[in-house]
From TrEMBL:
GO molecular function, one term: oxidoreductase activity
Pfam families listed in its UniProt record: FMN_red (PF03358)
Keywords, ordered alphabetically: Flavoprotein, FMN
Record-linked InterPro entries: Flavoprotein-like_sf, FMN_Rdtase-like_dom, ISF_SsuE-like
Domain (NADPH-dependent FMN reductase-like): residue spans on this chain: 1-108
Name under which the protein is recorded: NAD(P)H-dependent oxidoreductase
Gene3D superfamilies in alphabetical order: 3.40.50.360
Amino acid sequence: MKFIVLNGSPKGEKSLTLQYVKYLKKISKEHDFKVLHIASQINKIEKDEELFNGMIDDIKSCDGVLWAFPLYVFLVCSQYKRFIELIFERNVQEAFENKYAASLSTSIHFYDHTANNYIHAISEDLNMKFVDYYSADMYDLLDAGKRKKLACFFQLFTDAIHKNQDSIKKYKPVKPNRLMYKPQLEEKTIDTSHKKIIVVADLQEEEHNIKKMVNQFSHILNHNVEIINLNTLSIKGGCMGCLRCAYDNQCFYEGKDGFIDVYKEKLMTADILLFAGAIKDRYLSARWKMFFDRGFFNTHTPSLIGKQIGFIISGSLQQIPDLQEILQAYVEWQGSNLCGIVTDEYEDSSEVDRALYHLASQSMYYAKKAYIRSSTFLGIGGMKIFRDDMWGRLRFPFIADHKYYKENGIYNDFPQKDYPSRFKNGFLSLMAKIPTIRDEIYKKRIKDEMIKPFQKFIDNINA
C-alpha cells in the first residue's frame, strides 16, 4: 500500500513526530511511505501552484493518508492549518474523498484531544474514511510497550484499508450562518472608567459581519477601544518550534517583526481584551492560529493573568463544541476571566446588538470588580500537566518555566508536600484495618466528619 504522510511540524525532517513515522516505515517494509513536509514548506506551497498540485496528485494516488503533527496551543500549528484552508479555498477536496485517514500526534497530552478531534472532523468534512488516531507522549517511542501499541494502531489502519472497511461519521457538517448583520447604532453607551481596552481582530472584508460587530462593540464603549488588525500587524511567520525561548523567553523573531512588542506593550498591559474573528473550517483563521502560536515565546507560563477576555465570533460556533472548549480553556489556563462569547448566530441583528452590549457591560463590570471566575478542569487540569512536566523531565530545556513556577508557588500544591494529610491518611488507613473502628467510621461517622470543618468555620462567622 502507498501512504502519504502529511507532516505538520515546522521542523521538517527534524520533527520529533516524524521519528514515529520513521519507526512505522522500518517495521512496515511491505508498504510505501511518502512524506510531504507541509508545515515547514507552507510559504512555498502557497506561492508555488505546481508544488501544491503535485502534492494533491500524490494524495489522489495513495491508499491512505496519515496526518502526522505535534500539538501547538490546543491544535495543529498555524502552518498546517493554512494548508487545510488551501484545500478548501482551491477546491481540491475531491482528491481526499473516500481516502482512508488516520492521525498521529505527539505532545505532553495538553489538550491533545481537541487537536485530534479537529483533524478527525476535517477528514470527515473532506469525505475521508477516518479510521483512528494515535496520541503519543513525546517519548513514547522509547518505550517497548508503547511501540507495541503504535504498531497495533498502524496495523488496524492498514487492515481497514485492506478490508475496505466502512467508517461511521462522528461529526455533522457545519452549516454556514446566513445572517447579514446590520447594527443599529444607539446613543446608549458605557463608561469605560479609564480602563485600557484592546480588540485584536482578523479584519479582512469591510462588509463582513466581524468588522461590523467590532465597530459596534467599539461604539458601545464610546470608541475608547484600540483595535489591532491581525492583517496589518507585522508578523513574519508562525512559531518555528525552535525552543530558543525556553531559556529566557527570547523569541527567534525578536526584533524581526512587530508581534512581540504589541503582545508585551498592548495585550499584557490591557484591562480588557477582545479577540474577534470569523470561523474558517472548524477553528478561526490560520492568521489567528499564528497569533496564538507566536504567544508561545512565553512558553508554558500564563502571560495574561487577571485580564477580562471576551470573544466576538462570526460563524457557526454553536455547532463546534471543540472550539468552544478551546476558547474557554485558553482563558482559564491564562488565569484570566471569560466575560462571554458573542456570535452572529441569530435570526435578527438586534439580538447581536443586545449580545454585544451585554458583553461590553459585563467586561466593564468584571474589570471594576477585578473578578476572576474560579477555574474548572479545563484550567486546573491543564496547569497540572505543565506543572508535573516542568518539575520533571522538561525542566531542561524550559529553564524559564521552571524559574517562574518556582517563584510563583505553582509547585506548592504537590500532594507529596502535604505532610499533615499524609500523616492523617496513614494513621486512619491503619486504624481502618480494625473491624470495629472501620464500622464506626464508614457506617456511622464519615458523612458528619466530612462536613465538620465547614460547620465549624460557618459557625464562627460573626462570632
